[in-house]
Amino acid sequence: MTETESKWEEKLKRFFKDYYWNEILQLANEYPDQRSLGVDFTDIEKFDRELSKEFLEHPGELLKAAEVALKEIDLPVEKNLEQAHVRIIKIPNRIPIRNLRSKHLSRFVAIEGMIRKATEVRPRIMKAAFQCLRCGHLTIVEQSSFKFEEPFAGCEDETCGKKGPFKVIIEESTFIDAQKLQIQESPENLKGGSQPQSLEVDSDDDLTGNVTPGDRVIINGILKSVQRTLKDGKSTFYDLVLQASSIERLDRDYDELEITAEDEVKILELSSDPAIYAKIVSSVAPSIYGYEDVKEALSLQLFSGVVKNLPDGSRIRGDIHVMLVGDPGIAKSQLLRYVVKLSPRGVFTSGRSASASGLTAAAVKDDLNDGRWTIEGGALVMADMGVAAVDEMDKMKSEDKSALHEAMEQQTISIAKAGIIATLKSRCALLGAANPKYGRFDRYEGLAEQINMPPALLSRFDLIFVLLDTPNHALDSRIANHILQSHYAGELFEQRQKLPGSNITEDFVEAEMEVIEPIIDPEIMQKYVAYARKNVFPVMEGNARDRLMKFYTDLRKTGEGKDTPVPVTARQLEALVRLSEASARVRLSNKVTIEDAERTIKIVMNCLKNVGIDPDTGALDADIIASGTSMSQRNKIKSLRDIIKRVSERYPGKEGAPLEEVYTEAESKHGIDRTHAEEYIKKMKQGGDILSPDQKHIRLVN
């Protein structure tokens, strides 16, 4: 051991005794189950500036010296910390992956990002015991982490000295757990148009098996390089590999935001404001005019209800799913993008370009792990504990839509691909947007026929908003004024920024910008939401429960008759509960009051009036969303079956009933006009109830 190394060891022993004595005793108690001592870099700086500098410059030597110092400390318990590690955390030298350069090689660096891939944990050989097959002598060879080394100088036995053959004796060799990770830049830190860059990470021993794809982490470690090999020899290029020393998990929830004491004061001040709801609603997408009810629903979606884990092991989701359906050009995508921006973990995708595996998870051949199959999480996994916005949902392929069912209700994604059976978590709120089939929404047609979406998926949304673009002179003037004002303010701002000789003053720009500025700054809004989700868990008061129960049972009562449709299902009741909890969270209250219940009843009724009303009868009908066919439609289809049956009996031939006669009878006896009759017959054909031998005849399938 060199003089400098022993100098560092003495210093490190003093450091451990002064700063980490209790932690070392705890480690000794739990050893060998616990094998790591976490050391905060700021403590090393406080202890000795020179030592901390040396850690950053020559981390390999210093970490070895620290582990030797830890082993040599006299402990009051009879234990030897032979395999213990020193894990340094909170390294100040944080470098983005794309800024890693050759000067960082062999230095201590901290890399922040998202885990993209993780191989399974497998043993790696550290010391290989080779037995000479001629004389039986054992030769121990230390292994590097990149290439398997055989005894180069031959057998160590002086009488033998032969160059082989050798056999590895597994029992005498030393192994360590190892895992390869790939860390990628977090999507929120990317500049437009740039591909996220990734870095390979080697982790070993007790660092393995602790992270899964999608986790946000900071990995502290030593940057190493590995030479690339070509078919005809070695390349002059080297690949970067991070030898992990410690892994810090950035908490998965909304904890990624740092809320300072000043922020907390601001947040509590905001929550006591009686106009908090109006302020939050007007801070969601202020550049878009109107849509107060939609913005209120989106702000409740950000706050989310409370997740319940019940004693029987089942889990009730707290996330609120919202769907926006409507005419083109009414800023649906803008709303989606704004919500994603406010959510600390937001992911935006468009249905046209999203596949089932891109949304849920894909099985891919892994370049880290000898070409084995591994699972890569998609958009819904990456948005875990946040909001996933899917635009153009109607343009998705039907098999891709079916992948969303489980992600929405159970909030997990089950995979059975390429021999891998796994369940990933996707605890995110889904915000979808869809255009009606024929461009514009027809208020006299049911929702299910107009959106190209399966009813089973639609029924999983807590709120479905229909946004109509109806001309109205007074409203149009206000919208036009708002849009032009936004553009004018934007023009002034850009000219002031880009033209050096511009005579526009900053005060003038600010005055014009006031109209489209959110009342609550987006950064504070984000922290407000994070604070509410982390610290507020409201409980429903008795009168609020009674109010929701009365609303639900009164609505259900209207569906008790034989010929009346079922107005709402239990899913709407669950939606009411989630929305009421979110409403209490908005004002940071741990009680759900009757005012919260009234507010959510109003929002839900607005949605039901737009979506759940049978256009023929004007009655609320839950089946419109749940099954895609309202009760009045089912009755008409039943009448049509009877007509086809009667007409077919008059024509006993193979052709069946003439279509024209069926249409005439439907109109004269049952009041079903030709357009609707054609639609129902088309539905019956799709369902396999009727056949048409030619274009003019139909017959029932017995």
Break the fold down into its secondary structure elements and pairings.
Layout: H1 3-19, H2 21-30, E1 36-40, H3 41-47, H4 49-57, H5 59-72, E2 85-89, E3 108-118, E4 122-132, E5 138-142, E6 166-168, E7 174-184, E8 198-204, E9 216-230, E10 233-249, H6 261-271, H7 276-282, H8 292-303, E11 308-309, E12 315-316, E13 322-326, H9 332-342, E14 346-350, H10 356-359, E15 361-365, E16 373-377, H11 379-382, E17 387-391, H12 398-402, H13 404-409, E18 412-417, E19 420-425, E20 429-434, H14 447-450, H15 455-458, E21 463-467, H16 473-498, H17 506-513, H18 522-535, E22 539-540, H19 542-557, H20 570-586, E23 591-592, H21 594-611, H22 623-626, H23 631-650, E24 657-658, H24 659-670, H25 674-686, E25 690-694, E26 697-700
Parallel strand pairs: 1-2, 8-10, 13-20, 13-21, 14-17, 17-20, 22-23
Antiparallel strand pairs: 3-7, 3-9, 4-5, 4-6, 4-7, 7-8, 9-10, 11-12, 15-16, 18-19, 24-26, 25-26
Helix pairs in contact: 1-5, 3-4, 4-5, 6-18, 7-8, 8-20, 16-17, 19-21, 20-21, 23-24, 23-25
